[in-house]
Structure formats: structure tokens, C-alpha cells
Design goal:
Four copies of one chain form a homotetramer.
Chain A lengths: L8 E3 L8 H7 L10 H17 L4 E6 L2 H12 L5 E6 L3 H11 L3 E6 L8 H10 L5 E7 L11 H11 L4 E5 L11 H4 L3 E5 L10 E6 L1 H7 L10 H5 L14 H18 L1 H23 L4 E3 L11 E6 L3 H13 L1 E3 L13 E5 L6 H18 L7 H9 L6
Parallel strand pairs in A: 1-11, 3-4, 3-5, 5-6, 6-7
Antiparallel strand pairs in A: 2-8, 7-8, 9-10, 10-12
Helix pairs in contact in A: 1-10, 2-10, 5-6, 11-13, 11-14, 12-13, 13-14
């Protein structure tokens, strides 16, 4: 007997749940792209995006996904054969490096594994060795969607500064923007990349590169080709240059609505705090479940975890069984293992808790996982969901 | 700080949550109403509605709400000045009687209060007294949305039969159809009324009268007027008579999709079982919460509760505070007190658990109520949500 | 080869084309019906509806179609066995009378046929004969959707006044409201009925009774039954009385948006003028087509035609062929013959030109009919579409 | 007085009108991107896209617009410093060349102006001169959206063959695919690029590169970088490689629906024929209008015109006035001048007639332009719209 006859709940770490209002905003006829309201709508997006990123720099909007802006960020700032240093903490920074390698960049990786954050000291040490200044950029993800680690961006910035190194600091906030606190200018990121389909609550298809004056300077020495070139996108003579061709009309409609919600109704800081509270609720539940020894958070210290997604490690095969039960018996879709060895595919699951999320959604996901553990006979500590509801209620997490 | 930035969850006892597919089916241009696909679509609804009601009788579809079909059912079967007997168990049967009174029917009420179901023996006793056969119909609701009582329809039918009385047996399934088991033919209901906006998962605006041969016979002696007349609606010479005028085009689109889900994908019996399981989960949580003495189910015996809604009684004012916290802090809307003295408005709340509902939605509602109790400092027993998740998992309810 | 692969164009006289914005407004989750924004939204509808009807009287909103409010209007004002006088000018006034007959009203009909408007003098004569004041109400449609005649409401009012008769004057504006000029108070209508699915641009399912003090007085002597009673709907103690039960949530969303467009963006008078211009364009085309003798307008004098729909008479069978060609070859749906003898079913077609309509839509319909005439070899005068475009351009109609 | 209160009609040459069904298909929650139905849906698109392009080759789907696939096509096949030959016939081929220049390709242009198609003989002559085989590719658009010229793709292919040259033949069908007949394999195109927002009836945001074995061979000698690399997109080891990262979920939903309409309901050849007929109707109207000397088609010979868009030249400033009148008085949006000198901005307009288009839409556009000419007092020949309706009817165009 399946109980799966209600509204499916998607709790994967992106694409996240799209607000009904955003979908409705996209359910519109094609507009004129050479005049009329679309122009003003488009222009209104830039300041709001910068508000989200906490920057007074520039932002280029690309019709692409995260991989696209990984390439855009590198093509605008680093030349083939130049070196970048990747701080790998799971899956995605290394892939970013792979994109660079694909067009000839010399990619050096410091691998911190999939269960800890990047160590500032190791970064500092490596940069100090680079007397010749060959390292043009340091690449890191704020939140690795696979491992659910959160890197300490200010600390890494300080490490670069302590080393007195001139490398650009490039941060991937694809999974974390509008979820984890991020302060582009204050924290000294020179380039930041993001996508629309996670904390920005818009169907996948737009991505962003934010950049500051230092990055602009670097751009003078590169040739990104026309599509990735951020200059024409941010200093256009005519409208269509903003998108290097036809504008992504319906995504612009959607993003406008999403930014209305995020920036003008909730507020970015309030959104961070909401994510913090809801993530703490997940972790409180996980602590209880884990007490019986069959589950554990992939990242031990809560301070090293992103508030956008939580990776859970299980006994052999349990994660696969939990995901299946939740999806087919209850209508809850959890995230698969990513970035782990293939033979561990069913030993990890991820709970996405990013974007358009409130207590009924979050506690519904946790309650369903609790039901799955019970249905599958996976021994677990008691009181998990109530530990979560206690955090939601505003009580200190345990 | 509000956590209310996700998808609102409506847990009132109707209108219930409309499946996305139903809303999408209604997002269509106006169709031709004199030819084309609308005709076939309309005709396809009748057998499916009968499948839901478990009847081989007739069903008339009205553009109206439940009050409309209350009036339709009476206008087609009972004349002004004739008597009907109302079995009142909360709020709605008495109101049905009120509709009859409004056009001159002699309404006699047996009031069972708001915390118990109608007693078959009392019905039998009353009917036995009616030697003259003045009582033309017995009116009862299967599930009273206000009190959340469920009346025992087969037992009441047997009471009528034991009394050897000829009254029609008229049942209101507005809140219960497709939630609580109901067998129109097997259980001997002569007339049954229902609406589209609860178990049938369609926006409010359509309602139904099901009737059998005995009711048809009664119709020969009444004059309902054209709009309520079920004859032309069920034996039309031309299409528009089915709706006594312009068809409710978009509601027909929506209802078609909803019946596809209910009848052709899940199946009516499976839907009953799902509701039973999910209601049991609610009750398991409520039992735990209640153990501290501050909350209690309005209907003591689970066998007397509808599986569509649960009315909860609280200490003075607590229900109002719980509703407010859930709505404004978390995005969960609970049902208000209905059918209780005005001064008790904040001492009862209702959890709707009807229609388009799965474990993440239900456990999300219960988890949020649990958070409200904690946030508001209302003492409650522990383990409520997990008692619910245990039932969801298929374990025996406690 | 079919060219029918674009957006279908519906040019029937109701349901009319629903604006995308109205459909979008209805694509929403179910709201709370006991509190929250729905209450304010509902209350905001009444003044706007009165603005459309040009009245300071009352308006009751019914979940029903036009037939429902026909019955409501009569049930609230006339008792069974009392007499009403129907001025029949096609199809719909007589049907309204039929609704009255169905519950015992004594209906007298003056039949003006299907090709002319009601003659004020005949009305005056008849009322003068009624020395005893037996006629309680005079019923007329402003625009008969079948014949496309427009009755002269002010002239009929004057006829009643000249006769010095006390009958209520009840006008059906179902097809004409917000299309043809109508001034309820100034023109002295006591009761007016309308639906949402024509000039009000909302999917079928709501209908309205407007009434003044004289009608209110009549209500004191009737018993409409609860559902049709306009008292509780217009003087409610609690919200749900406005709809005698569950509110039609999604239709209210839709109507709100439609009234925003009609009342707050275009303006009612501008809408009348737009309809006048577009109707004149239809008639200019029809004049040209007709010059070859194979088509003719059903109503000879333009001043007697409604601006909402035009009935066209053809040679035997041509109308059916034109409708078929337009629908299957081109994606244009025209209205069928209504109110004519069955054997003439294919000898009349109707062009709906009501509500959400602009030049591309109207000229697209006319151009397609022109193509049909050519494809089918039906001889017709030249220059029809350009005669229409000339009117659209603001030139005098021919 | 504005008549602009109906459904706006967009008649620009892309983005074109999106079918309601496509918009509805995109109005869906985010799906899982690592499993479930999205995978199968995605895979189903490839054969249908190839059916549209008439090829048994490969197709890579990009989250991008037309400029993106211009770059993708060149990056996969031509190296910086290598030469391509651009046949410029208006605006877009030259821009494609500009994209190549942006990353260092040596672009040679033969400019045929904006009013004629590319001459095969000139191409042949130039290729014969290239004894060294320095020209790696010949770039041409099938239909130039600015000038509305259609190039003769088979004749150009024959010119290459006659010259015995080995250059790849790369065709831009962005504006013409599914409108003008195009036979990738039969006509010998090696690479073809297209977008989703014109004949494919999907909101802007996806674009396509089709390629054959010869192009695959060229790819072995290039390094496009990861995002543009068509290898991983067409020979993926895991699903996400198809899109080099996160899939464009909602656009895939939309494209699936659009291809259902185009490939499985209408059929590609029928779509071509529909476009031919409707374009002929436009031209018949334009011939008549032009007879007074104030308007003219930009491309003289109908055989050299694309069936997707028609560029119209007017007297000084008239085009601007026509566009304004149509948009503000009537709700019809026409295309602006593109590719002409800036001072001619108001001397050309374009009528888009591509994609989701039927007679009421097309004749509505033409009728409205006719009204504009009359309203603005621009002298024009008579009988234009009827010349169009005659073509729609199936009569020979004049």
C-alpha cells in the first residue's frame, strides 16, 4: 500500500522547490525583446542580485548552468597554461578545476577529502611557496553540495592575505547563495559564481558571475570569446548584449519574482537566519537518529556544515533503501550520493534544505525519513523529529 | 523571526489542497459548449462519480456548493409542510435541516450534541412512534466537519429497517466522500449529497446529488423548480440541461483530472485506506500530546471519528494561539472552531487530513503543531510526531 | 491540408475568451475560507460589480449560471401563481419565463419573434389593460444571444411609466453586461441578472442578481428558500452567508482580476465604446459579404443589434459548412444557431464579439470567415475585411 | 481611444508565440535530476530533433541562445587562426562570423548586401581560388531574420561540390527550422545550428548544434573547452554530461510538448506547407499594399524569401508609425528594423509568421496592419487582406 497520493516533496540539494509564484510568473506569453517592459524588468535584476551577493561589484547573467559560469569565470580571468589552485573538499571544486583543465589551464589541487573543510594554513603554506606568483587564482566552493561541507571563506581570504599573495580568490556559491551567509565584498572574494536553481528558487537555466575591480583588471589580459565575455554583458551598448543574443525571457520573469520574495519580502539576512534555524533542526534530528550507531552526518562539526544540504552516511545499502521507501511509499525525494566511490552509492543520502522552505516542509521531510527508518527496521535513536520541532520552536538545538 | 517562507500548507477541513495537476487542467482557454470535446469529457464524469459513491443510481451535478445540494436534495424529494427528521451531531445536519425549514419543511431534530455519534436506537424508537408515516426522510451527515464525529451509516440504516419505516435515508457525505468508506447502495442510502472541494480535490463550485429509484419515485410528487430539478440534469434531451444552462467549463476540466487521480490511478478503496492510515497517525500524535492533560480529541472513540478531519479541544485560548503561531511563524493553516459556543472560539482547532495528502504533508502539519506547542509553552506529552511516523511506517497505532 | 496549428480562436457568444491574467489568477492553491485575504478580496468585488451595472443598489453573487439567477431573481420577487409578462425576442426571455413557470408562476408572453426588438407600444398597451395590477413584473433581455437583437431598455421603461403600471422591470444582461451600454439606475431597471462568463471575462460558474429598493420591498412578500435568498447574501452576519456556504474560491480570484482589467484599467465606458467600434467593424464586413445575396444579418437595423454578438443567416446549409471549415481548417470556432427551428440548424451562425477582444482577434475572425467563403465557393461581396479594418481605423462605418 | 483590450498578438520574428500547452507543460514543480522520468523525457528529445532537422547525425542540446551555439559550432570544428568564409546576406551570418573572430578565427566575408541571397557562383569562384584549402568552413544562414532573405542551401552545397573544396558547410537555421524546408543530410550540411524559440515554439533558453561525421572528424583537431564540447553531450557516460551540469528542467518539459505538437501531431512536412501557405498569404497582402508605392517587400523575389518572416520597407518613418499604432491601439507587436543603418530604424518593419500560427492569427495581424495604414493615412493598394484570405482559402496567390 502506497501513501504517495499527495503533493510530492523534493528535498534534493537543487534544483530546489520553485515557489508557485515563480512558476506563475513564467506562465506568460513571449514578450517583445526589442522594447517594452522586458527591458526594465531585466535592468531591475542587477541591483537585487548584488544585494544578495553583498557586493557593489558587477554581475553578468548567463543563459547556462553552473558549469557554464565556472567556465565563464575562468575564461575571463585566467589564460590557458596559467595556473590555478583548487581547494578540493568533496566534488565540485575539483570539477571546476576540470573545466579549467579542459581549455588548457594548469590546475593544481589540494585535496582535503570529502569530510572536512579546506584548511587555511595549508593554503597559506602553498601560496608562500609560490614566490614567482604563478598561481593566478584560488578556487573554492563555499558549500560542497556533495559532501555538505562549508568552507570558511573569510579564513581562507585571510590565509591569502597573510601569505601576501596576489592570486584572485574565486568562490563558488552555487549551492549556498542566499542560504549560507556570504559577504562578497567584506570577505574579499574577487569572483563569485552562482546559479538560479537553488537558493534563488528559479528553474535551472540561468547562472551568474559576480566580479570586482581586480577581476576586471585580469580580464584585460584574457580572451574569453564572445559568449562568455562578461564585458559586453555588463557594459552593453544595446540590450541584447546583456545575454549575448536572445534574452532568456521566461527565466527573467521567474527570477524577478524570486528576487521579489527574497530581497524585497523576506530580506537576505532573514533568509540566512531561516536557513540556519531549519538546518539546525535537521541536525538535531540527525543527532538523535545517529545515537543508535547506524547513521551519521558526513561532516562532524556543525560549524563546518552548510545550511543548504546535509549529507548522511548509513550502513551498507541503507541509504538506498531509505530513498526508495521515501520516494515510492511517501512522495519524498531525497538526494543521492554524489562524490563518493561508486560502490558506496547506496550508503549516503542527502537532505536538501535550501530555498523555498518552511517548517511544514522541513518537518514533513524529517518525519517521513523517521517513518522510513521505522518501516525498514533500521535502528535509530528516538525523539528525532521532536528534537527538530524543538529547534523550529526556537529552543536551543541539542 | 518568521520561518514562513516556503509553500503554505493548508490543513483545514475543506477546501482541501488542490493537486497541481487539477489546477493545471483548469488553466485552459474557454471551450466551445455546444460541441467538441467538452461533451465527451462531461459524460465521462458520471460513471466515475458513481464509482466513488459506490452506487448504480443517478448523479446530478450542480453548479453550487454544499448548501445548494442540501436544498436540491430536499426540493426533489420532500414537499413544504412535510416532515423530515434530522439527526444532529455537531453542526451540519442541523444546518441542512435549516435549509429545509427555509422553504417550509417541518424539521424535527434529535440532537446528539457535538461529541458523540447518532444513536441508532433513538432513531429506531422515534420512527416506531411515527405510525402515520409522517416522517418523509431521515437526514444525517456521515462526517460532521465541525465536531469530526463519524456517524455509523449502516447501523442507522438498520435502525430504519428494524422500525419498518418507509422514510428516505438521506446522507450528507460532503466532508467524507472519498475519505471515509461509504457504500451508497450496499448501505441503503436513498439520497447522498457531496461537494467537489474536499475528498474530490477540486476548487469549490460543484456539488452533487446521488439518488436511487426510491428517491426518483419521491420526485414524482414534488416540484423543485427548474434549477434544482434533477430530472433534466440526469435525463437531458440536450447537453445544456445537464447544468440547467451554461456548463461550468473549467470546473469540469478540473474534476475530470481529479477523478483520473482518484478513480483511475489510486482507486477509491486505496484512498479510503490511505485516509485511515493517515488519520490513525494524527490520532497517535494526539494521544501522546493529550497525555499531559492540555489537549484532547473532541470525539473520544477512534471508531467514531471521521478519517477526514480531527477536532482538538484545548485549554482556554490555547487553540487560538496554536493556530496563530502555525500560520504566521510557520505557514501552516489549521481549521477554526465551528459549531461550538462563540466564547469557545479559541478553545478548539481542527486538523484537516482529507484528499490530496501524503506523509510529508501530514507529518509536516503534525511536526509544526508540535513546534507550536513547544514555542508556546503548552505542556504536552512527548513522542507525538514519532508515534505518527510509526503509524505511517505501517506499525500498529498505539 | 489543415492550417489549424496555432492558438484556437473562440468567437462564440459566451463563454468568451478568458484573459490569460484571469486564468493565471485562478491557478492558485486553495485559500483559507474562514479568515485571511479572501475575505477582503470578496468584499472588494461588490462596489466594482455595481460600477459595471451603474447602480447604487445591491448585488448578490451566486455560485450558479444564468439559469440560476433567473430563478433567484424570480424567487425573491414573485410568488407562485402571480403573473409576469415576458417580452420574447428570440430565445432567452422565453426561457426565463420557463424557469418561472417551473415553480408555478403565471407567465404571459408577448412574442416579437426572432428578428426584431420588443415594441414599447405593445408593452404599454398590455400594461394599460392590466387594471388590476396582476402583472408583477416585466421580463426582458437586453441582448438576446440567439437572435442578437438588442432591446431598447429606456424605451421599455418609459412604456411602463407611461402606462402608470407598478410592475417591476427585470432585465437580463447576461449577454450584454460590460458590452452594450446599460444604466441600471438611470434607466430604471429594478432587477438585473448577469453572469461572469461573457463581458465579465471569467470562466462560467458565477452569476449575479442586482436589485433596488423596490425589489427589496417585493422580497418581503416572498420565500425564495435559503440558497436563492438574496437577503443573507447581501446583509450577511458572517462571511459564508455571502455564498450560502462554501465560497467559490477560485472564481473569486478570477473575477477580481477581470474586474481589475474592466473597471480599473480600461473603464466601463471605454469598454462599451470598444465594443461599439468592433461590432461596427463586424457589421461593415457583413454588409459587404451580404451584397451578393447569400448572407444577411438576422437583425436588419444596426441600432437594434447588440454589440456583443451578431447572428448571420445564410442559404441552406452554408452556415454549417462555414463553421466546420473555420473550426477544422483554421482554428476558429463560431457560434451555432440557437432559437431557430431545428431544420435551420445549419442556416445560421453567430459571431461572438464580447469581452476580451481587440483588433487582431476580431479581424482574424473576420478574415477567416472570408477565407471560408472563398474556400467553399459561397459567393460574397468583396472588400469585407477591409471595410472592417476601416472601421477599426476609426473611419466611419459604411 | 485604444482598442487594445484583448489578447496581445506577437508577430515578431522570434521569440514566437508559445503554445498554451507548452507553457502549461513548464508550469511544474522541479523534478529530480538524478533519476526518474526526466531522464527518459530527455532521451526522447533527440530522435525528434533529428526528425525536424532531417538528419541521422548527432544533436547536442545547449543551455544557451543562438549566439551560444554559433560559438559552440565553431569551437568544435575550427581552431583559432584558421579561416572561415561567411556568406553575408543581411545581419546574422556576419554576426556569426563575429563570434568566430572573438576567439581568433580568421573570418573572411563575402557580402551580398541585405536584399538578395548568396550567389552560388561567387562561392564557387572563391573556393576555387583557395587551392591551399585554407578555408575550413563556409558559414551561411538559411533565413536571415533581419532581411528575410532565404538562401538556397542546396545550390550553395552544389557550388562547394563543384569547386571540389573540402570546407565544412555550416548552416544557421535558427530562424527557419521547422518553417522553411530544410534537409540536413540530403542537402549536405555538415553542421547546423538552431534555437528553440522560433519554429520550435519553446521559450528562449535552449539551442542546438546538429553535426555529421565530417564535423565529428574536425572535432578531433579542436579543443572547444568543456561547456561547448559536443562530445560529452552526445556520448555521455552519465546523464548530467548531456548538459555539462544541471539539466534545464523546465525547458525540457516545454520542448517535449512542442515536439509532440510539431513532430507527432502536425508532422514536419505539414508544418513546412502550412508556413508556405501562410507566408504566401502575407505576400499576397503585401503585393496589394505595395501597389500604391509606399511599401515594398525587402526581398523582391518570393522564391528568395523565407516563409518565417517578411521584412517590409516603407517611406521615411512610416514603419515606426505603423508599429506604434499596431502596438498601442490594437495590441499587435511587429518586429523592428534590424541590420539596416540606424537612421532607417523607422523605415522597415518585420512581420513574424513562424511557429504556432493559424489563419485567425495571421489574418488578424494583416487586418490590423491594414487598419494602421488606414488610420495613419498611408496610401496603399486595396484588397490586401482579402488577397491573403484567398490564399488561405487555398486559391493560388496572386
Amino acid at each position: 500500500m502506497s501513501l504517495n497520493f499527495g503533493r510530492d516533496l523534493l528535498a534534493i540539494p537543487g534544483p530546489s522547490i520553485i515557489p508557485d509564484r515563480v512558476l506563475a510568473a513564467m506562465h506568460k506569453p513571449s514578450p517583445n525583446i526589442y522594447g517594452g517592459p522586458l527591458i526594465d524588468l531585466t535592468i531591475s535584476l542587477y541591483p537585487d542580485l548584488k544585494t544578495v551577493a553583498r557586493t557593489s561589484g558587477e554581475v553578468a547573467i548567463y543563459i547556462s548552468n553552473g558549469h557554464g559560469v565556472w567556465e565563464a569565470a575562468l575564461r575571463n580571468t585566467v589564460n590557458p597554461e596559467e595556473k590555478v589552485l583548487v581547494l578540493a573538499t568533496g566534488f565540485f571544486a575539483e570539477r571546476w578545476g576540470g573545466v579549467g583543465k579542459s581549455f588548457g589551464i594548469d590546475v593544481e589541487i589540494i585535496d582535503f577529502g570529502a569530510r572536512r573543510d579546506a584548511a587555511p594554513q595549508q593554503l597559506e603554506d602553498r601560496l608562500r611557496q609560490d614566490k614567482a606568483g604563478q598561481i593566478k587564482a584560488v578556487l573554492v566552493v563555499q558549500a560542497d553540495t556533495a559532501s555538505s561541507v562549508k568552507n570558511d571563506i573569510p579564513a581562507l581570504r585571510e590565509a591569502i592575505d597573510r601569505a601576501g599573495h596576489d592570486a584572485m580568490f574565486m568562490v563558488d556559491c552555487i549551492a549556498s547563495l542566499a542560504c549560507d551567509q556570504f559577504e562578497m565584498d567584506k570577505w574579499g572574494a574577487d569572483v563569485m559564481v552562482a546559479g538560479c536553481q537553488k537558493g534563488l528558487m528559479t528553474p535551472a537555466g540561468l547562472a551568474f558571475v559576480f566580479f570586482n575591480d581586480k577581476a576586471k583588471e585580469a580580464r584585460k589580459h584574457t580572451n574569453p570569446g564572445m559568449y562568455w565575455d562578461w564585458v559586453s554583458r555588463t557594459e552593453p551598448e544595446v540590450y541584447y548584449q546583456r545575454f549575448c543574443g536572445t534574452a532568456p525571457t521566461h527565466h527573467l520573469f521567474g527570477l524577478r519574482e524570486a528576487l521579489d520574495i527574497l530581497v524585497h519580502e523576506e530580506g537576505v539576512e532573514a533568509a540566512w537566519q531561516r536557513h540556519e534555524r531549519l538546518a539546525a533542526a535537521v541536525w538535531a534530528a540527525l543527532d538523535r537518529w545517529s545515537s543508535a550507531g547506524n547513521l551519521e552526518p558526513n561532516i562532524a562539526a556543525p560549524s563546518n556544515r552548510t545550511v543548504a544540504v546535509t549529507t548522511v552516511n548509513t550502513k551498507k545499502g541503507d541509504a538506498g533503501r531509505i530513498r526508495d521507501w521515501c520516494e515510492h511509499q511517501a512522495g519524498l525525494t531525497l538526494g543521492i550520493a554524489l562524490g563518493f566511490p561508486l560502490e558506496e552509492a547506496n550508503d549516503h543520502f542527502r537532505i536538501g534544505h535550501m530555498g523555498h522552505l518552511n517548517p511544514p516542509m522541513l518537518l514533513g521531510a524529517l518525519g517521513t525519513i523517521d517513518a522510513a527508518l521505522k518501516a525498514l527496521g533500521i535502528d535509530h535513536g528516538e525523539g528525532a523529529v521532536e528534537a527538530a520541532s524543538s529547534v523550529v520552536a526556537g529552543h536551543k538545538s541539542v
